[in-house]
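Lab notebook: predicted structure, single chain.

Context: the supervisor wants predicted structures on file for every construct in the current expression panel, including those that have not yet been purified. This is the next one on the list. No modifications to the sequence; it matches the entry in the shared construct table.
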Amino acid sequence: MGSSTRARQSAPPGESPPGDRIQSLSRGLRILEFVHAAERPVGIKEVAFGVGLQLPTAYHLVNTLLYDGYLERDDARLLRPGRLPGSLDGRVDVAVRRALGRAAYAVDDVAVLACPADAETPAAEARVTATAEVPGAASARHYPANSTGLMHLLAVGRVILAHQQPDVADETIALTRRAASMRGELFDEAELRDSLAEIAERRYGVLVSEGHACVATPIFRPTGELFGAVAVVVEPRRLQRGHDHLVTAASIAAREAKTTLHPNQTTTANKEATCTSTTATGTSPQVEDGDDLPAV
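Prediction complete. Output recorded below exactly as produced.
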């Protein structure tokens, strides 16, 4: 039970906890430490015993950590550390979340990492992998981890679709056309294809939907395949006067996420992100730095 002993040590011997210590945060961190140290899937009762918590308290904390992607459940409903797709270890997850945090502070709203959903969903469908938001942000609470089909993230869907293989993109457009026909809706395929061509050329997409403006930039794997996209989301009124700043913030977050997930691509990633943001602004990219990750 070395992991449980380690998890229960909340402060060095002889040192009193600070007066502003947040007990629920401390307990949540102890749960994460216990699950990571176990090096195998563990049950909720084992976690509660290992960190010295009542079972109902452990349930509440674990559910929050599951919701935000810090923990996952396997097929046997045992707990294991949460992971971002393509990440190498827990430190990578933290680095990506911090990149999103800096982007969220830069735009004073929300930043999202989204990846293509599984093979059973359309190629343009985006699944939220991680979210960072400034407390009180206008777009907060709209992007829970693992959610799909969010109208607010249409720009992400188009960025994903614009960088798919032509046959995959054609199949997705055909599915969209049929779905629109079944619902009796108009579908402007020419407008969509023109939009995709423009996104592919400039390496970012911008769309306004349901009261949210979304600016998204792609992230590529070392093989050249699309990994996902980083998006910043703000109120539409901020898009016109802050367009260049939003594109720059999303581009820099995509660069940081890419170099963390694929460290061998550092040089290429830096050049691509700088090129994207310089094209949008005409100047070198500058983004405000946030020292701490906003609420996730």
